[in-house]
Write a structure and sequence with these properties.
Length: 579
């Protein structure tokens, strides 16, 4: 929690204002009983109507002043707290944007969402409370006691008895409540995880008829959260009546014993009433302190979770002095690259060396899990290599700024992702100032024109969340067009053509040729027909290079490759292609 207080910095002057207002409010509250005592003693007791009016007017003014302070104080403290939490949310979001894929592998998306929304709200609620009471309650406690004693020392034993009892009750409740708060956030995480899984996996849940099972899973998590919430709320709810009982008992005791003292002439009537009011204020302040002690641990649990995210150091960072790439445009080179995923026993890629140059098509083929996607993900530096080097335009990727590096690359991921917005918005994603013509042209090359023009509003048609209103193949083609709009130096197509039928695949690649004449093209593929006329084919097997060369060369020298070919093409086709 303390660490999050740095987000209050921009609000320093408002904070001072809030504190001054809180002091004003407290002062008014503490002054009123004094005035009342005066009215009773000097006005009512002596039948002095003038005095009653005069002091009464002052009382009304003080009361109005106190209320104003309270209202304005709450207004600004809410502003401070919400502003602070807005800054925290922005910081979390920015932090997460800078995460490399490694960090996403360690914190779940569901948890990141809970932390950005629910946890920040907890902090916000407590901040409002703290800002309003942190000053008021302690001042009321201390000054209230002094003023009460000033009215009458003889009744003070009632406070001496009541305060420890109240404190004891509070402590017992606290000890029971704190562990529940921490458990509550964890259960909430679980609930969000299940919800998230179900929403993103809704098709699978339906297809496998697992609705019942999922409902059960959700019910369980839901019940867990509810059980804890009920226990927490019962505790807070039981606290209120007990406290009120204590406060009322004190009032009775004060009037009872006060009357005896008034009767004996040891105490003035007004002093007794003032004492009564001070006692109530003191015990209420104690109650507020108790509430604060309950809320703070709860926010503390959330603050810790927020700090975990804020303190995560992204593994991939820009170098201090990024190097500019030389003139070569789009040259990619792997030098003895080895890479393993976090916690994996075997490297996903071992000793990969090759180079891909502009104007040439480099194809990567291999079975599923052979490391093709891993290889191309290393080029935009989504992950850092364990050993070896990756050079783009003659500069090691770790020595370039990520922005400069990625600006060179048109990346079409294996799993196409579109954003909510129109087709045009999606195509412009990599180049905001692209003209209509550029968009049309890219769509044409990507063989997407035909189906886009058939959509109800053509290029202005909306893509729904997650791209659910276009088919897998259409999504792929839009994703290809999006990369084409960028006119990058390096094209990476990660298994992008498998979702297309053979005819579209061939048409698309033919159209691409004209488009990518000066660029380096890397095509990951499963189908031999996709790679057959590439300038260079890299065959991957279990993260190692099994062979590099053209189709003809590999047919002679690489068993793995000829194995893949013979499993896909008939003998006559092989003969034709090799001839
Ligand atoms: P391909 O694209 O050739 O089908 P991948 O490059 O996706 O294969 O995967 C290569 C290997 O790395 C697989 O064994 C896979 O299980 C593993 N792998 C892929 N992504 C991750 C990840 N994020 N964390 C851990 N292991 C991964
Ligand atoms: Mg893959």
């Amino acid at each position: 929690m303390i660490k999050l207080l740095r987000f209050l910095n921009p609000y320093r002057s408002l904070l001072v204002l809030v504190l001054v207002l809180a002091i004003g409010q407290t002062a008014a509250n503490l002054y009123l009983p004094n005035l009342m005592s005066d009215i009773v003693n000097n006005g009512i007791a002596k039948f002095d109507t003038n005095y009653i009016w005069r002091t009464g007017r002052i009382m009304v003014l003080v009361a109005i002043g106190g209320t104003l302070c309270a209202v304005v104080g709450i207004y600004y403290s809410s502003q401070v707290a919400t502003g602070m939490v807005k800054a925290i949310r922005a910081r979390i979001f920015n932090k997460v944007q800078g995460f490399s894929l490694h960090e996403f592998d360690t914190v779940s998306t569901a948890s990141l969402i809970t932390r950005t929304t629910n946890d920040t709200t907890q902090v916000q609620q407590v901040m409002v409370m703290i800002l309003n009471m942190l000053i008021t309650a302690p001042i009321t406690l201390v000054v209230g006691i002094i003023l009460a004693l000033n009215q009458d020392v003889g009744l003070s034993w009632i406070l001496v008895v009541m305060m420890p009892v109240l404190v004891a009750i509070i402590i017992v409740l606290l000890i029971k409540a704190i562990p529940l708060f921490t458990a509550m956030q964890a259960k909430l995480d679980k609930l969000n995880l299940i919800l998230d899984e179900n929403l993103t996996g809704v098709r699978v849940v339906r297809a496998f008829n697992r609705e019942k099972h999922e409902e059960q899973r959700f019910d369980e998590a839901n019940r867990d959260v509810t059980d804890i919430a009920i226990r927490v709320n019962q505790m807070i709810a039981s606290m209120m009546p007990v406290m009120m009982l204590m406060i009322n008992l004190s009032s009775v005791a004060i009037i009872w014993f006060g009357s005896l003292r008034v009767d004996a002439g040891k105490l003035q009537m007004g002093a007794m009433f003032a004492f009564l009011q001070y006692a109530t204020q003191i015990l209420f302040a104690l109650l507020m302190v108790a509430l604060m002690f309950i809320m703070i641990p709860r926010a503390e649990a959330s603050a810790t979770r927020i700090n975990e995210v804020l303190e995560m150091e992204p593994e991939i960072r820009d170098p201090e002095e990024p190097r500019q790439a030389t003139q070569q445009r789009g040259y990619v080179e792997f030098q003895d690259v080895t890479f393993s995923y976090l916690g994996a026993e075997q490297p996903a890629l071992s000793n990969i060396s090759f180079s891909a140059s502009p104007g040439k098509v480099t194809a990567i083929i291999g079975g599923t899990g052979s490391g093709k996607s891993t290889l191309v993900n290393l080029i935009p530096r989504f992950y850092d290599v364990d050993s070896g080097k990756i050079l783009v335009d003659g500069v090691e990727t770790r020595e370039m700024s990520q922005e400069q590096l990625r600006a060179k690359i048109g990346f079409v991921p294996q799993k196409a992702v579109l954003f909510t917005g129109s087709v045009n918005d999606n195509l412009r994603y990599g180049k905001e100032d692209a003209s209509e013509d550029e968009l049309r042209h890219a769509a044409e090359v990507a063989q997407a024109n035909e189906f886009i023009t058939k959509m109800p509003e053509g290029f202005d048609s909306m893509i729904s969340q997650g791209g659910t209103n276009v088919s897998g193949g259409q999504m792929q083609r839009l994703s290809i067009a999006r990369a084409l709009v960028r006119k990058p130096e390096i094209y990476v197509f990660d298994d992008t053509f498998s979702a297309l039928d053979f005819k579209t695949d061939a048409k698309l690649r033919a159209a691409l040729k004209g488009e990518t004449r000066e660029s380096t093209v890397l095509i990951v593929a499963q189908r031999v027909s996709t790679v057959i006329d590439a300038d260079q084919i890299i065959v991957l097997e279990q993260g190692r290079v099994a062979g590099i060369g053209t189709h003809r060369e590999l047919m002679k020298t690489c068993d793995v490759y000829s194995g893949i070919v013979s499993s896909q093409l008939s003998a006559t086709e092989i003969a034709e292609e090799t001839a």
